[in-house]
Design goal:
The chain is of the alpha/beta class. It is built from 11 helices and 8 strands. The termini are close together.
């Protein structure tokens, strides 16, 4: 049984006061929700203030990236220890915007995620194909290669301490969501790769969908057997829409029996 998981990637938006007011709205809107793991990932500058505003809530804090070393002369970078220090439990790694604009490779993502796990941060690792790759009929091949490269050398135990996000690049910030069938096809493929590595414990690993998730499409996506939650960008920086996405994931997840009855 996999508990539903909804994470908001705020990207490079929100001043500190704006971040605090957004999280206060979200907190008030989801405080009765028990069966969904809820995470917000503000920009680095707002992490401390948002952490304070989340005290004693049912929402966890995540960062949008980190470096693969713990400390040293790496100007501009943030270490896993610093993220722990500021209250983070999660960290997004290998987001397509990092891969596309900052040249992040599967090799670097692999190093980062191993360091994150070592320091008890839970990585949310993103993989997904571009439109050109999908149009060329290469979506599965690309995702298979990213899976191999990003998760190289991971033990079964390490796999159980991370979350995977399938994010087709053509659906990120474009308003064009993958259909539930397209999402399920790729999530099923990713789960089959996991099964090869993990055997039956594969059922414990959560695979999120990301790409223009909105209140209107969360339920149909969550109805798919291998969609365990969502990584939400644009709709996560509007309080009411994020609240509705959290609630929408819960309703459908309950119906499909993905959530434990705790
Ligand atoms: C994202 O940034 O991970 C994302 C999925 O963005 P959006 O929801 O805006 O497509």
């Amino acid at each position: 049984m996999r508990k539903a998981f909804i994470a908001g990637n705020w990207k490079m938006y929100k001043s500190i006061p704006e971040a605090v007011s957004l999280v206060q709205v979200i907190r008030a809107g989801v405080h009765t929700v028990q069966d969904v793991d809820i995470v917000v990932c503000p920009p680095f500058t707002a992490l401390a203030a948002v952490n304070e505003a989340l005290k004693d809530s049912n929402i966890d804090l995540g960062a949008q990236d980190m470096y693969s070393e713990t400390e040293g002369a790496f100007t501009g970078e943030i270490s896993p220890l610093m993220l722990k220090d500021v209250g983070c439990r999660y960290v997004i790694l290998g987001h397509s915007e990092r891969r596309q604009y900052f040249g992040e490779t599967d090799g670097l993502v692999n190093k980062k995620l191993k360091t994150a796990i070592k320091f008890n941060l839970i990585p949310i690792v993103c993989i997904g194909e571009t439109l050109a790759e999908r149009d060329a009929g290469k979506a599965k091949e690309v995702v298979a290669n990213q899976f191999e490269g990003s998760f190289q050398g991971l033990t079964a135990e390490e796999f159980e301490r991370l979350i995977i996000a399938y994010e087709p690049v053509w659906a990120i910030g474009t308003g064009r969501t993958a259909t539930p069938q397209q999402a399920q096809e790729m999530h099923g493929l990713i789960r089959s790769f996991l099964k090869d590595r993990l055997g039956d414990t594969v059922e414990r690993v959560r695979i999120l969908y990301g790409g223009s998730v909105k209140p209107e499409n969360i339920s149909e996506l969550m109805a798919e057997p291998d969609v365990d939650g969502a990584l939400v960008g644009g709709a996560s920086i509007k309080g009411e829409s994020f609240i509705q996405i959290v609630r929408g994931s819960l309703l459908e997840a309950k119906g499909s029996g993905k959530v434990s009855s705790s």
